[in-house]
Structure formats: structure tokens, C-alpha cells
Amino acid sequence: MVGQPGRRRGRHPAAPAGRRPRPVRQAHRRPRPCTRARARVGTCARVRVGVRTGLRARPGVRSRNRAGINGRLTKSDMSRKPRVLSRGMAWRNAVNGVLQQLTGYQLRRVPVPAARTAPAPAPAAPAPAPAAPAAAPAPAPKPKAKKPAPAFPADYDDEAKDIIRAVKPYSMTSPERLNAFILATRYIARHDIPGSVVECGVWRGGSMQACARTLLSLGETERDLYLFDTYEGMTPPTAEDLRRDGRPAQELLDAQGKDRPIWAVASLEDVKAGFGHVPYPKERVHYVQGRVEDTVPGQAPEQISILRLDTDWYASTKHELEHLYDRLVPGGVLLIDDYGYWQGSRQAVDEFLEKTGERLLLLRMDEGRIAVKP
Q1: Is 190 within 8 Å of 301 (Cβ atoms)?
Q2: What is the domain range of residue 58?
Q3: What share of the chain is helix, strand, coil (3-state, %, to 5)?
Q4: How far apart are CA 60 and CA 104, in angstroms?
Q5: Judgement on whether residues 189 and 315 belong to the same structural domain of the protein
Q6: How confident is the model at residue 93 (pLDDT cuts 50, 70, 90)?
Q7: In this structure, are 297 and 368 located in the same domain?
Q8: Record's SUPFAM superfamilies (predicted)?
Q9: What is the C-alpha separation between 81 and 85, in angstroms, rounded?
Q10: Residue 365 lies in a domain
């Protein structure tokens, strides 16, 4: 750039007297850009070309490109199109110079690659036919849940527990009533109570097995054991035979098959096979088959040390008490298995005690009762 005329560079124009003049630094003044909104690019380019590119612009010659920034061409410009194209490089440099100064960016032509045509996709293979669903495997049968081992009170001795475990598959009697039978057997053996052991209603013989095992543990094998039963299941009940909730026994029997526990069906062979596991003398075990109304008292022993009644119904229990209680020796033990479950059994006992005036203290053994004859 050229400084102002008539002024020496580096000196202050007028310094006061007695004071050293301070040097003045003058910055180079940049040429003013075109401020007209529709300025011709050629006018600005003439100055910029000389400054930025080192090309000398001929004075007085303007660019014939009147397109400007808006990019419009006149008819006269169209006639001089080859000349404009020959100066395209200078025009591009001039524009890039201005852009570089103002924004820091320049224009560059970037070749655009030709669009690639994607190869046609291969025809998809036909989808295979869906396979027939495989048949679901049959569910495995659930194993039958094993009955839990009976829980014993803390006062049961180990020998009684072992006996109860051994005979439980052959008995529907609860552990408490089985334990009472074991204690009664020990009682008659230790106190030398004479007489045989009689049970009416034995099912598979589990309760009498407990008695035999207890006698064996005490070393006593001379006592006779009598097992009275039909060995064909329950006899027909009567109107007095109701369950404790009032439901008739006949209705309960009709609702269930004879293979259900309520019928208590067990053959004589089954009972004998169960007793085969007990090493009690076989000649001391007596099996009496038939209704108690037909076999008692004809086939019953004269002396009874333990009388256990488990035929459930009113008629059979009444018959047993009327014909066998007198044969129960003093100090003998009476066990009534279903006193608290079947109303007919309880009624038969209560009527007998009221009729005879016998004073018995009936102690509870869950649903049963136990007493010692005075």
C-alpha cells in the first residue's frame, strides 16, 4: 500500500517544543473492498489479482464477466463466453482469495464418483415347506408320593417305635393306638394277668403283630392269640352306624369301591402271610373266620387278658361286649378302637355300661378308648 502524500513516515507531524517527538507507527492500510451491493466482480478482481496472485492487471480494463455474485449473464456476455472461460482460473483465484480472507475457506472442485449400480439380487430360493410339528412326548408318570414315616411323641421308647414301624404296612391303626396296645401287652406280661389276647376286626393283622412282637421281646410265647374277622370286608351297617359328622356308614360304603380302606377287605391268606414275618409260634395264633355274631362266643377262649374291639358297627360291638366282657379277667385291658369315630360303636359301649352298671374309666387314645377292668 501507499502512504499519505506530504507526510514523512515515522515522524510525528508536529511535536511540541522541548519534547522529543514520539515515533508514530502507521499500519498498512488495506484496500477497501467493494461496498456496492451490485459491484462488478471484475473491478474487485483487478485489485485482488495483483495483490494475491502477483498478476498485473492492465489499468482501465475491466472484467467482461458481468455475472457477479448473482450468476446472471447478459446477451453481450454470452457472445464473449470463450474469453470468460479463458480467464476462469484468475476468477477462481480471486474469489478464493476473498473467501480465504473473510472466512478462512476456499472453493475446490471435487469429482463426484459415478453412482454404482448394485447387482441384481439373485432370486431367493423357495422356502422349504414347514415340517410337521413333532408329536409332544407323553408326560412321564409322576412317582407316587411315599407316605411319610409316622411321627412319634418324645416319650415313646425305641422298642415301641421299631415295632410300630414294622407293623404299619399291615394296620390302619394310628401310632398312638398301636402304642397303647404295646403298653397293654407289657402290662399283662409283667403282672401275670392270665388269659388269651382277643381281637375282633383285624384287617391285615398289624395290631396283633404288634402284640406278638412285644411278647417276643419279653420272652413270652405261651399266650394264645385269637383273630376274629370275616376276612371278606365289612358287614352291612345299620341305621345306628353314623360317622361322627352324622353321615350314614351305608352311604359312605356305597360311594366307594371295595378296594378302599373303608371296606377293610383282606383275605385270610394275606393275614397269614403277614404273620409269617413274625417268629411267634404258629400254633398259638388262631384265625377265626366269619361274622362275630356267628363265631362268638362259641369259638372264643374262656379267659381273656386283652379284649380289643375294632368291628366299627353298633350291632357287632354290642354283641362282643355282651358275650366277651364277662370273660375279660379282672385287671384285664379293654380297648375300643372306634369309640370316637363311629357313633354306633360309641352307642353300643355306652348302652352296655349303663345296662350293666360297670364302672370303667375310659381314657382317650386319640379316636379310641382304653380301660382296665376292675
Answers
A1: no
A2: 41-102
A3: 35, 10, 55
A4: 31
A5: yes
A6: confident
A7: yes
A8: S-adenosyl-L-methionine-dependent methyltransferases
A9: 6
A10: yes
Query: How many separate domains does the chain show?
Result: 2
Q: Is residue 289 part of a domain?
A: yes
Are 181 and 329 members of one domain? Answer: yes
Average the pLDDT over each of 69-73, 216-220, 297-301, 339-343 and give the range with the smallest value: 69-73
CB 48 within 8 A of CB 98: yes
- The DSSP code sequence of 23-64 is P---PPPPPPPP--TT--HHHHHHHHIIIII-PPPPTT---S
Q: Which helix (H) or strand (E) holds 293?
A: helix 292-295
Q: Which residue has the cell 404258629?
A: 282
Predicted structure pTM score: 0.61
310 and 217 together in one domain: yes
Task: Please state the rounded mean pLDDT for residues 114-121.
Answer: 59
Check which CATH number belongs to the domain holding 324 and give it.
3.40.50.150
Grid cell 369309640 in the structure block, residue: 339
As beta bridge partners, residue 334 has 307, 371
Q: Angle, to 10 degrees, between the axis of helix 206-217 and the axis of helix 268-275?
A: 20
* Integer Cα distance of 105 and 256 in angstroms: 102
**Residue 101: helix, strand or coil by DSSP?**
helix
SS3 328: strand
Greatest C-alpha distance within the chain: 170
Please report whether residue 141 resides in a domain: no
Q: Do 92 and 162 reside in the same domain of the chain?
A: no
pLDDT per position as a tens digit, 226-277: 999 999 999 999 999 999 999 999 999 989 877 787 788 899 999 999 999 9
Question: Do 97 and 246 share a domain, yes or no?
Answer: no
Q: Which pLDDT band holds residue 117 (cuts at 50, 70, 90)?
A: low
Looking at the domain assignment, is residue 304 inside a domain? yes
Query: Is residue 197 scored above 50 in pLDDT?
Result: yes
Reply yes or no on whether the pLDDT at 193 is more than 50.
yes
Specify the pairing of strand 368-372 against strand 328-336. Answer: antiparallel
Taking only the tens place, the pLDDT of each residue in 30-44 is: 555 554 444 444 444
Partners of residue 371 on adjacent β-strands: 334
Q: Which three cell numbers stand for residue 368?
A: 379310641
